[in-house]
Amino acid sequence: MTKEAENSEAEKSDVDAALLSVWRQALLEHKKRVTLGDDSYPIQRTAKNKLAQVDFDFAGQRIRALEQNPATASRWAELARKGAKVMQFLIAGRYIAAISDGKITHFTRK
Question: Does residue 56 contact residue 36 with C-beta atoms inside 8 Å?
Answer without folding.
Answer: yes
